[in-house]
């Protein structure tokens, strides 16, 4: 299964549209399944970086796409010697 790494929100609209087309679904069909109008679906694809997380997750599910979050150690700040760093607090 191919993976697509997103580094910027500007990459999301093109990927969502490509995933939808790959499933053979029209905007209208995806909109019905998402519970929105075709116009809203079109706007969502154009401005995906502004969509709520809940709506994005529902759309990804409809498209059969799994969201995987992975820490990129190459982009992480250098680790300190402190033992407490391994236990982040949220």
Description:
This protein has 90 residues and is an all-alpha fold. The protein has a domain at 9-65: Orthogonal Bundle (434 Repressor (Amino-terminal Domain)), CATH 1.10.260.40. The protein has helices at residues 12-23, 27-34, 38-46, 53-62. The longest helix is centred in the first third of the chain and has 12 residues, at 12-23. The chain is elongated.
CATH class of the domain at 9-65: Mainly Alpha
The CATH architecture designation of the domain at 9-65 is: Orthogonal Bundle
Largest sheet: none
Helix content range of the residues, please? 40-55%
Q: How much beta, percentage-wise? A: under 5%
Oligomer: single chain
Rounded Rg: 17 Å
Write the layout of secondary structure elements.
Blueprint: H1 12-23, H2 27-34, H3 38-46, H4 53-62
What is this structure, in a nutshell?
With 90 residues, the chain is mainly alpha-helical.
Primary descriptors:
434 Repressor (Amino-terminal Domain); single chain; mainly alpha; 90 residues
């Amino acid at each position: 299964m191919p993976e697509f790494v997103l580094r910027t929100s500007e990459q999301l609209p093109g990927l969502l549209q490509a995933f939808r087309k790959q499933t053979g679904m029209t905007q209208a069909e995806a909109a019905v399944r998402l519970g929105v109008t075709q116009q809203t679906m079109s706007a969502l694809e154009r401005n995906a970086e502004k969509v709520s997380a809940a709506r994005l997750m529902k759309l990804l599910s409809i498209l059969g796409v799994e969201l995987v979050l992975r820490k990129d150690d190459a982009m992480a700040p250098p680790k300190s010697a402190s033992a407490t760093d391994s236990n982040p607090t949220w």
